[in-house]
Fold:
Amino acid sequence: MSGQFGEPIDAATRYCAVYGDPVRHSASPAMQNAGIAELGLNWRYLAFEVHPDSLQEALVGAKAMEFVGLNLTVPHKLLAMEMVDILDDSAREWGAVNTIRFEALTAKGEWVPLHLCQDEITRPVRAHGFNTDADAVTRAIREDLSLALERKRVLLLGAGGAGRVAALKLAAEGVAELFLVNRTSAKAEALQAEIGQRFPKVRTTVGYPKAEVDLALNATSLGLKAGDPLPFASADFALKQAEAVYDMIYRPAETPFLQAARQAGCKTANGLGMLLYQGAKALELWSGLNPPINTMRMALEQNIYGKPR
Structure:
């Protein structure tokens, strides 16, 4: 049996995967398998739909089957904080886990990535949780929108897992003001309080801006499904108030939100760049090698747009 990339699968092939619910829209397998093949690794990257109630069992299963590592997407990133054995500083800093590396204890008492154990895996094996999302979202915004974030005014739509990480990272980058909008205001108010405690120089408002903003960022899932409403209230905010618009969603490549923003004259970008950079960092954490960014980007573009751009 052969995979889409690389040499035929054999008994020495190691696996990594993404867990999500839903997950069928994910472009991560295309991106990661292209990167894995470029690095010459005898690995394969898979995707599994895992219900939140089954996440603990699925993590234990991957550990038992000696997976190299995992990516986690909605709705698992917050749940996993309490399920991994150890948290990296990045996961503690941003309060979410989107990447897990499985590690084994050597005879010298050192924890090393499982793939470095060429022969028999020693026990115990642990799950090490990381966050690669935070750096990825701000890098993608800077590059795809040519937007420096320092001193900027940002409208953030969604204060859940992805929105919270984005808000905290934007605050750490030195934005001047954050406007926080969420379906339930209590979650936005809790995030406002957290930002106020950790980043007191950043002004925060729960609700829509009255004047213009430099960036409007969609961190909700609205736009994933056909027929979803726009992620903002048009009675309270007009897209012409935003200079640039970023949607974390990458499939569809142009959501109704981005289409409306483009028609309003905004500079726009979807979540492909964020997906690329968080995935490249995950591959680096698993392999210890420099990820082939260009190869991974081309695979994403082929998967999402039907051809490299």
About this structure: Residues 35 and 292 are 6 Å apart (CA to CA). The chain has two domains: 14-131+273-305, 135-270. The chain is about 35% helix and 20% strand. The mean pLDDT is 94.
